[in-house]
Amino acid sequence: MKSDHLPIRILGCAILVVSASICVCAQAADPGLTPAVEQSETFRDTLVRMKIRREEEQHQKLVDKAEQIADLTGDLLRKAEAGRLPRSQDKKIRDIEKFAKQIRTEFGGGGDAPLEEKPASLSDALRQLQDLSERLKTGMSKTSRRVVSAGVISDATEIIALARILRGYVN
Q1: How far apart are CA 46 and CA 144, in angstroms?
Q2: How far apart are CA 42 and CA 33, in angstroms?
Q3: Which of 21, 146, 156, 170: disulfide with 100, CB 3.0–4.6 Å?
Q4: DSSP 35
Q5: Among candidates 150, 162, 83, which has minimal Cα distance to 115?
Q6: Do 140 and 166 contact (CB within 8 A), yes or no?
Q7: Quick check: 78 pLDDT over 60?
């Protein structure tokens, strides 16, 4: 009895496999789909455009941080009094240092170097910081997202060193 049903079962399985493969082929041959090669090229182009846009936005943020450093330095100049800085200016000094570190890191720089010529007074340090911050702002505005500037890295490193010196003048 069981041997009589064996050919029918095999035939049933074969029909099932053939009908399943026909369904799969019909779905794959859908004329509304674009070829995989065309999809991958479009996808790659989209990824490249997204990467470029992200890099441009990141560079613009760095340019904005250089402008903030210059603005904060101007605030410090206005608040300096009798060779000291009020305690309220400590956050501005820390922000200047943080922004300069971010710029230096993004441009591939690292490591702190001591200043060649340490300022003798608070007013000298602030003047030097103002000059450096303006130079950094100008350098950042002239660079593109693909340019690595040794001048920008050097200016950022000097700003970091000056910020650490300025913390000693905070009441």
Answers
A1: 21
A2: 14
A3: 156
A4: P
A5: 162
A6: no
A7: yes
> What token pair was written down for 66?
């250089």
Residue 9 confidence (pLDDT)? 78
Residue 24 pLDDT exceeds 80: no
Backbone angles phi, psi at 75, to 5 degrees: -65, -40
110-138 burial: b if 16+ Cβ within 10 Å, else e: eeeeeeeeebeebeebbebbbebbbbbbe
Measure the CA–CA gap between 167 and 96, rounded to whole angstroms. 11
Q: Is the pTM of this model over 0.90?
A: no
Write the DSSP string, 112-168: ----SS--SSHHHHHHHHHHHHHHHHHHHHH--TT---HHHHHHHHHHHHHHHHHHT
* Dist CA 43 CA 35 (whole Å): 12
Which pair of tokens denotes residue 92?
A: 């501005």
* 116, amino acid identity: E
